[in-house]
């Protein structure tokens, strides 16, 4: 399968916001998101629950309209891209009629497209050929997800969107699902998936877009996200008198002390190291990369929550 | 794609046929009612308009079966659309109009099942009337039943659950008693009946047989009822259901 060169990016969001009324309040689910994803990229949209992942993907798929801003899928409005079969998705929940068989479900959805991939082939690729005659209600969560995946393959989309595709799967089913997905991505399909599993974003995506409270808080390669935010840990021998000064340095997330040795988690390890060595008289300095988990928590925790800064000082 | 999707419609029909409980309530039960309250009773051969009482009861029960069918199809369509299936269809080129047209086709075809079954039993058990009465009444029963797909739709949109749709079908039994469908009402009950949802529909369906005369149980002479009463009743209720459905769809959109 070869995918033609296209001047327009697979996905472009410009100043996209979405808010809706919930009771008396106005909920701002997505705030001013700019994003561009090129053809063939595999991108994870990572964020905690309620970060705006599903709302963003719903707008990309034309299921809801943005309150403001513009979305283009291969240069088309989302709804037109869906009609043209250029974008399709595996949705998080629901989506299936319990009383249909697996094969009936695939046939019904196939019939809505002007041209679709052969039903048998799609079921084979999704690994559900053996389940063809089974009722959807009798399929496990993982099997239903494979069925949704088969449905998503029907239009032979250039951009495949997956909204928390492995939620509710056990470890083995999750591994199988990603193996199938790797095969699809290897053919040059653009894949955008939402997840709150760091491990999935880390192992499958080349690029991570971090969402928090509806905004993009980081957008970079998986390595850069891990390195940047981050979660570098700087450890050095520093006089305890300088603890307050350390905490007030820009980008410092936490300061922990054990005897003479202080451990600092900070966004900009270079600047921090310079300050420690030149200004604070520190020595025996070490810099290590923090885990992706630490990066995730540091980046997605609400911005006004700076209490962690002073939480770990030694009371001596 | 065309307005009515053949594969979609065929699959929807398969789903209905595979559901024995649903079929029992839409087709078997009304047919059973006709046999019990019509075909096996002494009064069945008494004259009624262009035919006999058996025919009057036959039309009534066919109408009850038909609205049970359309209410269920309409209600389940709404519930499915709001649950995940609507999102899944939203990822296809299928338009809402196609969904509605296909579901309406399904509703009509399913409503035709009790009508065909009960009319067939009617032929075998001595229901009699003019050919025009047979044909016209069947057409009105079928066409008028579509209004109750809107009723089902509104209930489905309002309560968003399959059990609510079941309850809506159950409410039809009450409407049928109140609406002069099951037993001929008279006096105050008949006056009240004229305002209930099934009255206009069933009286229009019977009109080819009764020519507008209202059958009573107490042996008094049948009264001629003007056509506008039935037409207004059906028209107003159709408007009420449609308006409710539109308002509820808007409410659903606002929540997104």
UniProtKB/TrEMBL annotation, chain A:
Q: Which intervals hold domain ABC transporter?
A: 11-238
Q: Which CDD domains has this protein been placed in? A: ABC_DR_subfamily_A (cd03230)
Report the Pfam families cross-referenced here.
ABC_tran (PF00005)
**Domain of life of the organism encoding this protein:** Bacteria
Alphabetically, the GO molecular function entries are: ATP binding; ATP hydrolysis activity
Q: Report the subcellular localization.
A: Cell membrane
- Keyword annotations for this protein? Antibiotic resistance, ATP-binding, Nucleotide-binding, Transport
PANTHER family according to UniProt: ABC TRANSPORTER ATP-BINDING PROTEIN (PTHR42711:SF17)
Q: What is this protein called?
A: ABC-2 type transport system ATP-binding protein
Native source species:
Marihabitans asiaticum
UniProtKB/TrEMBL annotation, chain B:
One of the Pfam families matching this protein, by short name: ABC2_membrane_3
Q: Which GO terms describe its cellular component?
A: ATP-binding cassette (ABC) transporter complex
For this protein, the record's InterPro entries field holds: ABC2_TM (IPR013525), ABC_2_transport (IPR000412), Nod_factor_ABC_transporter (IPR051784)
Q: Alphabetically, which GO biological process terms does the record hold?
A: response to antibiotic
Q: Does the keyword Ubl conjugation apply?
A: no
Q: How does it sit in the membrane?
A: Multi-pass membrane protein
Q: Name one GO molecular function term.
A: ABC-type transporter activity
Pinpoint the ABC-2 type transporter transmembrane domain residues: 53-247
Q: Where in the cell is it found?
A: Membrane
Has UniProt tagged this entry with the keyword Transmembrane helix?
A: yes
Residues crossing the lipid bilayer are 21-41, 53-79, 100-121, 133-157, 164-183, 227-249
Q: What is this protein called?
A: ABC-2 type transport system permease protein
The species is: Marihabitans asiaticum
């Amino acid at each position: 399968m070869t995918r033609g060169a296209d001047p327009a990016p697979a996905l472009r969001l410009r100043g996209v916001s979405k808010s809706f009324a919930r009771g008396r309040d106005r909920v701002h689910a997505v705030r001013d998101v700019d994003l561009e994803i090129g053809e063939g990229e595999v991108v994870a949209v990572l964020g905690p629950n309620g970060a705006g992942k599903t709302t963003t993907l719903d707008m990309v798929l034309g299921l809801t309209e943005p309150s403001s801003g513009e979305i283009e899928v291969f240069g088309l409005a989302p709804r037109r891209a869906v009609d043209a079969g250029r974008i399709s998705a595996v949705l998080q929940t629901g989506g299936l009629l319990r009383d249909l068989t697996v094969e009936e479900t695939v046939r019904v959805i196939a019939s809505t497209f002007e041209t679709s991939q052969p039903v048998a082939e799609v079921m084979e690729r999704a690994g559900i050929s053996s389940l063809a005659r089974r009722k959807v209600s009798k399929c496990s969560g993982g099997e239903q997800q494979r069925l949704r995946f088969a449905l998503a393959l029907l239009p032979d989309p250039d951009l495949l969107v997956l909204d928390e595709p492995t939620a509710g799967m056990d470890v083995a089913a999750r591994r199988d699902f990603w193996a199938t997905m790797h095969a699809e991505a290897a053919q040059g399909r653009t894949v955008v998936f939402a997840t709150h599993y760091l491990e999935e974003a880390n192992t499958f995506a080349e690029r991570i877009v971090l969402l928090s409270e509806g905004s993009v808080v980081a957008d970079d390669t998986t390595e850069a996200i891990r390195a940047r935010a981050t979660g570098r840990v700087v450890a050095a021998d520093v006089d305890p008198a300088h603890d307050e000064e350390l905490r007030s340095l820009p980008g410092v997330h936490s300061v922990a002390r054990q005897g003479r040795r202080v451990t600092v988690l900070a966004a900009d390890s270079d600047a921090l190291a310079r300050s420690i060595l030149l200004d604070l008289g520190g020595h025996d300095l070490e810099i290590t990369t923090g885990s992706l988990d630490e990066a995730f928590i540091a980046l997605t925790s609400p911005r006004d929550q700076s209490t962690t800064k002073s939480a770990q000082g030694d009371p001596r | 794609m065309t307005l009515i999707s053949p594969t979609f419609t065929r699959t929807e029909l398969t789903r209905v046929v595979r559901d024995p409980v649903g079929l029992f309530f839409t087709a078997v039960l009304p047919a059973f009612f006709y046999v019990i309250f019509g075909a096996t009773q002494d009064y069945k051969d008494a004259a009624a308009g262009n035919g006999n009482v058996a025919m009057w009861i036959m039309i009534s029960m066919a109408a009850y079966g038909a609205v049970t069918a359309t209410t269920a199809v309409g209600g389940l369509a709404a519930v499915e659309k709001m649950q995940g299936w609507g999102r899944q269809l939203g990822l296809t080129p299928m338009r809402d109009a196609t969904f509605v047209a296909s579901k309406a086709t399904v509703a009509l075809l399913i409503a035709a099942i009790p009508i065909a079954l009960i009319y067939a039993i009617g032929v075998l058990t001595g229901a009699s009337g003019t050919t025009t009465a047979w044909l016209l009444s069947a057409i009105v029963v079928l066409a008028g039943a579509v209004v109750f797909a809107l009723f089902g739709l509104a209930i489905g949109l309002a309560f968003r659950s399959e059990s609510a749709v079941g309850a809506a079908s159950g409410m039809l039994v009450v409407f049928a008693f109140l609406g002069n469908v099951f037993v001929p009402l008279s006096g105050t009950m008949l006056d009240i009946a004229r305002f209930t949802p099934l009255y206009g529909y069933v009286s229009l369906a019977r009109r080819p047989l009764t020519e507008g005369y209202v059958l009573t149980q107490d042996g008094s002479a049948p009264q001629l009822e003007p056509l506008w009463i039935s037409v207004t009743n059906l028209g107003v209720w159709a408007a009420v259901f449609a308006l409710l459905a539109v308002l509820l769809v808007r409410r659903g959109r606002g929540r997104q």
